[in-house]
Each structure stands twice: as structure tokens, then as C-alpha cells.
Amino acid sequence: MATEIPTRKLYDDYVVPNYGRYEIAFSRGKGSYVWDENQKRYLDFGAGIAVSILGHAHPRMIAALERQARELVHVSNLYYTRPQGELAKKLVSIVGTDGKVFFSNSGAEANEAAFKLARKFGNESSPSRFEMITFHRSFHGRTIAGISATAQDKVKHGFEPLLAGFRHVPFNDLQAVEQAINACTVAIMVEPIQGEGGIYPATKDFLVGLRKVCDQHDLLLIFDEVQCGLGRIGNWCGWKEIAGIEPDAVSWAKGIGGGFPLGATWIKKKIVRMKDGSELNLCDLFQPGSHGTTYGGTPLACATSLAVLDTIEQEGLIARARDLGSYAKKMLNGIVGIKEVRGIGLMLGFELEEKVKASGKTSSQTVVLELIRRGLLTIPAGPSVVRLLPPLTVTHQEVEEAVQIIKTTLEDLIGT
């Protein structure tokens, strides 16, 4: 009988080395825990980078996958399927404002639709405009347009020349936004809470101010809610938890499918005056031939997402995220080695003090590696911030377990 090739060797021999992977191979998960191939158990406070919003192997998600897989998996977007229509209706109701939804496969694609919407809007309206404002520390995906929109040099290096039409300004600085607007500006894209950039929430005044500026200059206000949306911060919509305003478009992914690949872009129903004098709704700008995807919104993906969103609603997981997030934040504050705790709900990050030993790596990398060794999965966000993104099904006891591991780890690294 042939000897099974070790997982690490399979990757070394056959998988492109574009990820900085940790020395661990997972084989199964249940709830908030995952097990590696040696059957060591880990408490998962990364959730696939905010993806596994119901944890691992949730029975309702499994049932939806099995049921839909027996009926219809894929037929392409040349035809109608009921799950896509039902999911679009659900997402429009979550936003609470009339609009329509375009489905894709990932956050990068959901943002790509938003970029193209802005370009389409700018080219069809008068005068023609194309430039979008985004913010320092932002992250909007790995496509060429996504890294062009992202204001972090580390994602851009080696891919120049980048796509023209993006201007980056300081986050939470309304005056900088106003100064950056010119005759070419067509839209502003912002994360209500910056994730990859280090867990920085927008202020209420900033988001309210962006809406006013957009209205004044006829700009689109687009929210990238790929990481913070659909319940994670204690509200279906991240911006609603911060400010009661209406965007023109919203991108989602990650938690929307609970682990099944899916992206979505909601577009507001509002009148756009075209160059020829006619009028069209913003949500109808994408006409046949203007944008598309082969896999976006398959019956399997949409049926799974509906089950995920229904579970979040019926099990009260949004309120759980708000309550347990506040509890975790309170427990983390005051731990030796933590400079600041940021975030809302179950989208948290703690910034490390300089005295945390780095051992040749950044302090966040050092801490994440040590937490892995002790059985807790977390995600770095820059050189000094560790993200906590547990599933919304996480329990009170599991939050306490994670905080205790963090506390003892930092005490040992500092030497207290």
C-alpha cells in the first residue's frame, strides 16, 4: 500500500507559496474548535478571517447544503433560480432601503462590482468622472483594482503600474476628504470598521459627514462591509451601529455564506440623470453585457446563505455578538502588555505595548504564534495588533477561555 504524502509536502510540491502559512494542518472542526491532523484541539478566534460566522459544522448549514445539493447546484446566470431571488430579497430587507443585489464569489469581487458601479455612474452622468477616494490603512481586496484602492503599500509592491483613479486620505478626517474632492471625483469607499488595517472604527461624525459631502457633490457613498457586516459587530449592518445614514452601495462577503464562497453588492434604488437627459435607477445601471460572473449566486451558495442568515436571526446571534463583544473588551482592558482594545461586537483587536518581546518577528506575529502553541487561533493586523474574530455562536465560557490564554501568554512573554 502506498504511503500517504504528508500534507505539508503536498503544499511544498504543488501549491503556489503565496501565503505565509503557520506550521499546522487542520482536519476537522466543530463549533468554536478545530483539530489538527495530530488531533490537537484549538479554540478558533479567527473563524477563517471572519468567515465561519456559525462556527464549524453547524447543523443548519450542513442541512441546507445537503438539501440544495440534491436539488440543483448550478445552472448559470442565464436563467432564474428561486434561492438567488429569495436571498436578494433578504439582503434588501436587512439594509432597509429599496435596492437590488449583484452576486459574486468573494469580497474582492463584491468590491470590484462597486468599483465598476462607480465608473459606470461617473461615465453615464454629466460631467464624466472616474476617481474614487479611499482611506489610509484600508483593505479592499487582491485584484488589481482592489490593491489600487487599498491604501497599504505592502499589497501594491511588485504589481505596478496600478489602476489610475484612486486617491487615499486619512481615515476619520472629514477635512482631508473635502480637500481631496475635485472635478474627477465620483465616489467614496470606506470600511465602517477597518479590519486588516488594525481594527479602527469610523466615528459617527465622520460617516454622517461623508454622507453630507457625497450629497453635496453628487458622489456615491460605498461601504465595504466584507469583514464587519451581517451581524459581526452587533448589527446586521456595520454602519447602522455607528451612524444612522444610508449608503449608495454596500459590499459583503466572508460571513454571508458561513464558509461557502459568496459575495454580494447591494445597490440603492435612486434616480440617476444620464447624459442624454433620461433617468435610470442606480441599481439598474448594470444592464446585460455590462458586468457578470459565472458562479456568482448559484442555487447552492444562495440556499446556504439563507440558512446562515436565518440562523443568525432566529438564534439571536446579533445580540450575542454585541453582549459578548462588550464582555471580552472589558476583560481584555487592563491585561499587562495590551496598550489598547479597539472594535465593536465580535470584531475586536488589541494593540500590543512595546515591551512585548518580538523574538525577531513583529510583536503581533510573535504573539499569534505563541497563542497557536497554546491552543488559540487569532489573526495579526499589522505589526502590533492582534485580531479576535470568533464565530457568533461563541459561548461565554469560550470567551473567558480565550482571554485567559491571552493573559498568561502576554505575562510570560513580558516576564511578569
Write the layout of secondary structure elements.
Elements: H1 7-14, E1 26-30, E2 33-36, E3 41-44, H2 47-50, H3 59-71, H4 82-95, E4 99-104, H5 107-124, E5 131-135, H6 144-149, H7 153-156, E6 166-169, H8 174-180, E7 185-190, E8 193-194, E9 200-201, H9 204-217, E10 220-224, H10 238-242, E11 249-252, E12 263-268, E13 271-273, E14 279-281, H11 299-314, H12 317-332, E15 338-344, E16 347-352, H13 363-373, E17 376-377, E18 379-380, E19 385-388, H14 396-414
Parallel strand pairs: 3-17, 5-6, 5-7, 7-10, 10-11
Antiparallel strand pairs: 1-2, 2-3, 4-12, 8-9, 11-12, 13-14, 15-16, 16-19, 18-19
Helix pairs in contact: 3-11, 4-11, 12-14
Summarize the structure.
The protein is 37% helix and 19% strand.
What does the model show?
The protein is an alpha/beta fold. It has helices at 7-14, 47-50, 59-71, 82-95, 107-124, 144-149, 153-156, 174-180, 204-217, 238-242, 299-314, 317-332, 363-373, 396-414, and strands spanning 26-30, 33-36, 41-44, 99-104, 131-135, 166-169, 185-190, 193-194, 200-201, 220-224, 249-252, 263-268, 271-273, 279-281, 338-344, 347-352, 376-377, 379-380, 385-388. It folds into 2 domains: 7-57 and 316-414, Alpha-Beta Complex (Aspartate Aminotransferase, domain 1); 72-314, Aspartate Aminotransferase, domain 2, CATH 3.40.640. The protein is 37% helix and 19% strand. The strands form 5 sheets. It has a 7-stranded mixed beta sheet with strand order 4-12-11-10-7-5-6, with helices on both faces. A hairpin with a 2-residue loop joins strand 1 and strand 2 (33-36). The mean pLDDT is 96.
